[in-house]
Amino acid sequence: MDKLVIEGGVPLRGEVTISGAKNAVLPIMAAALLTPEPCIIHRVPDLSDVKFMGQILRSLGADVQSDGGTMRIQAAQIRGTGDYDLIRKMRGSVCILGPLLGRLREASVSLPGGCVIGARPVDLHLKGFRALGAEVKIESGNVLVSAPRLVGNELFLGGRCGPTVLGTANVMMAATLAEGITIIESAACEPEVVDLANFLNEMGAKITGAGSPTVTIAGVKELHGAEHEVIPDRIEAATFAIAAAVTDGEVTLHGARAGHLQAVLDKLHEAGVRVERKGTDLVVRRGGALQPVDITTQPYAGFPTDVQAQMMALMAMTPGISIITERIFEARFMHVSELARLGVDIALEGPSAIVKGGKPLSGAPVMASDLRASAALVLAGLVARGTTEVHRIYHVDRGYERIDEKLRGLGARIQRMAGS
Ligand code: EPZ
Q1: Whole-model pTM?
Q2: Span between the terminal Cα atoms of the chain, in Å
Q3: I want to staple 178 with a disulfide (CB 3.0 to 4.6 A). Which of 143, 219, 284, 397 is the partner?
């Protein structure tokens, strides 16, 4: 398994282009199952999760062709049962259920497993499918859904931690081909859900309210092919903004959408980081001494859970006490013990991490555990004195396009090497 070897201490300077959003492109790829016509998707990031989703769609019978950042998907003839091993490996694959239910009125996929950040249940997805008239069964680790008729309905999709992003995506996709009107209350408001709704409407769906807690879908008979450019990845943009801050450099983010990052930009401002808008670019640098901040992760438009670990890396080198509370996932502090190996002083108290920042970090071998935790370890390695080795970086490659090349382009001393 490959590793990233980082020599810390270099302020990052220069420009980086933000790639297409992983969490938008995965459901948009799945949405192409809703029509037999070809769909063209632009600004597709080169990520292992995207490759996995392509393999899953092929295992269902779809034709998937990639050419650089453009992908062509045609699901002319498909079946409702996919490659279970592939589907088990990637949680995001759960979003093929909605399109398969909408197009074929039946589907059988392996129950997506949990992961290191939490149990990742799908009860809300299944509740939504049942509300549309589907029969749902769990048999030997597989989810079987079937509905001779899909009928629109009003349903509440909120869970104990608020809305579900992929649950909203799944129900929205199934409802596009249901009879009548579906109203989803407590829908997720993430920009990726809006991007999916825009793509579905380009396919002929009739969706209003995406981006608000109430989404209305008027069912149609069929959908046609469409061409779409995926929104930029707000989580990658946040990660590179924090990289500029932790290294005390100055980085221009090309293509970052400030409107998708308000909660993050607000906290960075409070922490003493200056972010200037220049057209469609964001220029990030420190505006003086860093200040400790308290963060609580929330559903959009609150502070995103996917930036929690990266902010912890910034707070680790900020003198003072910061309290970071994780309210979305029950186990999203895997990065804490690895950051401690670099000299960070963090105490865990239930859902909160108390970060006593400001001590100099020193490089060490660390182990990536999940996608965003890995990014946090890379950020800490950029400032730690000496050499940091981040092992198991396949976690990073799931959600960051060529992160070592992009960081090297900003002056970082970082190399990808074959792991031990
Ligand atoms: C999406 O996951 C993202 N993944 C995650 O990004 C992101 O962290 C998450 O949304 C929250 O923003 C993709 O879009 C591919 P949820 P999703 O359903 O949809 C509970 C990354 O790093 N819940 O919004 O699976 C759940 O346990 C990844 O890019 C239920 O209880 O997350 C969690 O506590 C990590 N029942 C909360 O809701 C359900 O049926 C939010 O989960 C579904 C979810």
Answers
A1: 0.97
A2: 7
A3: 219
Contacts (Cβ under 8 Å, ≥6 apart) of 202: 226, 227, 228
Give me the residue spans of the domains in the chain.
2-19+232-418, 22-229
Ligand 1 site: residues with CB under 6 angstroms? Answer: 22-23, 26, 91-92, 118, 120-125, 159-161, 164-167, 188, 305-306, 328-329, 371-372, 399
Share of the chain above pLDDT 90, in %: 88
Peptide bond into 197 cis (omega under 30): no
Are domains 2-19+232-418 and 22-229 of this chain identical in fold?
Answer: yes
- Could you report the per-residue pLDDT of 232-249, keeping only the tens digit for each? 999 999 999 999 999 999
Q: Tell me: the pLDDT tens digits for 121-178?
A: 899 999 999 999 999 999 888 889 999 999 999 999 999 999 999 999 999 999 999 9
| Superfamily name with CATH number, domain 2-19+232-418 | Enolpyruvate transferase domain (3.65.10.10)
* Contact indicator for 157, 145 with CB cutoff of 8 Å: no
CA distances from 227 to 29, 39, 145, 222 (A): 12, 6, 29, 17
Q: Active-site residues: which are they? A: 115
- Position 115 scores a pLDDT of 74
Place of tokens 């970060």: 355
* pLDDT tens-digit map of 280-337: 899 999 999 999 999 999 999 999 999 999 999 999 999 999 999 999 998 899 999 9
Backbone phi, psi, residue 228, to 5°:
-150, 145
* Cα 121 to middle of ligand 1, angstroms: 9
Residue type, 67: D
Return the CATH architecture of domain 22-229.
Alpha-beta prism (3.65)
